[in-house]
Design a protein that fits this description.
This protein is an alpha/beta fold. It has 22 helices and 20 strands. Strands 3-2-4-5-7-6 form a 6-stranded parallel beta sheet, with helices on both faces. Helix 3 packs across helix 17, helix 14 crosses helix 15 and helix 15 packs across helix 22. Bound molecules: thiamine diphosphate and magnesium ion (MG). Magnesium ion binds next to helix 18.
Length: 556
């Protein structure tokens, strides 16, 4: 037993659970915690200037190193500000312990400023939400919170910390962390059945998902594709790297257009979905993206995803890496020479249309518009692709401007790419900071739309404060171009209300400099290559604002 205050016990327990970063934005109710942070040098406090930035940084950190992380916000308004980022974190399954200070128990009843119950606010977006009512319960609650956040399907949890609990002294048994080993693989009988089923397919396709990146299973997925002669698609919403783009079997990204996806999948006779979301889409279409006759095999640790929207012939709640490691020897042993020859033939036939071929075409298309001013976003993406160092990590949220980025920048390793998971804007600006802290030694390039950047622009200050090696490239088209495009295509209207960021135009260079980030604006396409190379060469944070075409004749 140790006699401790609630506030010290809270930080001790975070450290005992392996947390080394606490992202936060404090208020009066968090002062007890802030006061004792210096007693725990193992825990690095990272200040974010808005709660969406705080949780966005924690999300980026958790995604880039698959580790438990903590974030702390201030009472109900702070939690409210964080909800969009929490929604993102839930989508990407980030194991975050999100805490919020709360008014003292009893004092809350008087309805002071800043009081509202926190648990019901957080609940829809977390795996578990709880308020601590006694300091004695902190060990149990903290250990349970960590276990829940880290056990697949991983995700955020939320703990409300009333002031009186933080002040209370108690005799505490701190206990120890529990880690659930959830690296499950199917039974031998199921694996044998799976091997037979896969080898019976004449033309299989693989849908590669982010769980392959999270569990470092690229090598296993590559061997599966080679043994089966299967074409591999990246999942429709890319959260993270999914499969090495330059492998000859990689056929690139599936789009989020239901009709187009269905047409692409139609020729295949089996879809093997590896740790992916099965064809998650964005906007409504009456067309089902999955061809009705296409059987599905789905391996995922997220049981909710299995058979969620489509009947699935074989649905396996399992770890993709362990499953593939157990399956591959069976396939190697059982594949006969005829099947091997057919697989090799199919692989060779992908050459004219695989990712590398698509990259070649995307390059040519980008070079055709190289001279245009305002700069064509396709040319910007090409110049970014050329400037990126090999070990670079791309964090992306640039909507229409980055449409061609996945075709130009290869996914090479499981940590090379992080994208917007949920559609809720505001991930990339702070997410890049989390990635930089999680992956020391790897330069980060964040490619962000002008509109998107403004959902987390305060992140620039934290990047400058911590001198992080991040290059922010802002594709400034002075608009919400995607909304304009959708108004035209879906509603046949060109009456653009609330979609222009003009009058006045936003000066991202001045914004960046005001927060301590070196910045320059690029207008001439010829200046792109040297400016991007120079920015990426610098050690500290840099911002390059690129004036790109708005897609509507600029200025209309
Ligand atoms: C939190 C949040 N608010 C609003 C939206 C709606 N929305 C989707 S895309 C978009 C515009 C993005 O603008 P920008 O980053 O400049 O990209 P562009 O469309 O110009 O390529 C908006 C406002 C959203 N997805 N998430
Ligand atoms: Mg824009």
């Amino acid at each position: 037993m140790t006699r401790l205050t609630g506030r010290s016990a809270f930080l001790r327990l975070l450290i005992d659970e392996g947390v080394d970063h606490l992202f936060g934005n404090p208020g009066t109710t968090e002062l007890p915690i802030m006061e004792v942070i210096p007693d725990f040098p193992q825990l690095k406090f990272v200040l974010g200037l808005h709660e969406s930035v705080v949780v966005g940084m924690a999300d980026g950190y958790a995604r880039a190193c698959n580790r438990l992380v903590a974030a702390n916000v201030h009472v109900a308004p702070g939690l409210g500000n964080a909800m969009g980022a929490l929604y993102n974190a839930r989508f990407s399954g980030s194991p975050i312990i999100l805490t919020a200070g709360q008014q003292e128990q009893g004092h809350g009843l008087l309805e002071p400023l800043l009081y509202a119950p926190l648990v019901p606010v957080a609940q829809p977006f977390v795996k578990w939400a709880v308020e601590v009512t006694r300091a004695e319960d902190l060990p149990l609650i903290m250990h349970r919170a960590a276990k829940v956040a880290l056990t697949p399907p991983t995700g955020p949890v939320c703990i409300s910390l009333p002031g009186d609990v933080l002040e209370q002294e108690a005799e505490l048994e701190l206990g120890a962390a529990t880690r659930v080993d959830a690296r499950m693989r199917p039974s031998d009988a199921t694996l044998a059945m799976l091997a037979r089923r896969l080898l019976a397919a004449k033309n299989p396709a693989i849908l590669a998902g982010h769980e392959l990146g999270v569990h470092d299973a690229f090598a296993e997925a590559v061997e599966l594709a080679e043994l089966l002669g299967a074409g591999v698609f990246h999942q429709t919403v890319p959260y993270a790297a999914q499969f090495p783009s330059e492998h000859p079997a990689c056929l690139g990204a599936l789009t989020r257009n239901q009709k187009a996806v269905r047409a692409v999948l139609e020729p295949f006779d089996l879809l093997v979905c590896l740790g992916a979301d099965l064809l998650r889409m964005s906007v409504y279409s009456p067309v089902d993206p999955l061809p009705p006759a296409l059987p599905v095999i789905h391996v995922s640790e997220r049981d909710w995803e299995l058979g969620k929207n489509h009947p699935t012939e074989v649905a396996l709640q399992a770890n993709v890496k362990e499953t593939l490691a157990a399956l591959l020897p069976l396939l190697r042993a059982q594949r006969n020479p005829v099947a091997a020859a057919q697989a090799a033939q199919r692989l060779a036939a992908f050459a004219p249309r695989n990712w590398s071929a698509q990259q070649g075409r995307a390059r040519i298309a980008a070079l055709e518009v190289a001279e245009e001013t305002p700069i064509d976003p396709r040319f910007l993406m090409l110049r970014i692709a050329e400037a990126l160092p090999r070990e670079a990590v791309v964090v992306e949220e640039a909507l229409t401007s980055s449409l061609t980025l996945p075709a130009l920048v290869p996914q090479r390793d499981p940590k090379s790419y992080y994208g917007l998971a949920s559609g809720g804007l505001g991930f990339a600006m702070p997410g890049a900071i989390g990635a930089a802290l999680a992956l020391p030694g790897r330069p980060i390039t964040a490619v962000v739309g002008d509109g998107s950047a403004l959902y987390g622009i305060q992140a620039l200050w934290t990047a400058a404060h911590l001198k992080l090696p991040i290059t922010y490239v802002i594709a400034n088209n002075r608009s919400y171009r995607i909304l304009k495009e959708r108004l035209v295509s879906m509603r046949k209207s060109e009456r653009f209300v609330g979609m222009d960021l003009r009058d006045p135009e936003i000066d991202f260079v001045a914004l960046a400099r005001s927060m301590g980030v070196a910045a320059r604006r690029i207008v001439d396409p010829q200046d792109l290559a040297p400016a991007l190379r120079e920015a990426m060469r610098q050690g500290g944070p840099q911002l390059v604002e690129v004036m790109v075409a708005d897609g509507f004749g600029d200025g209309r």
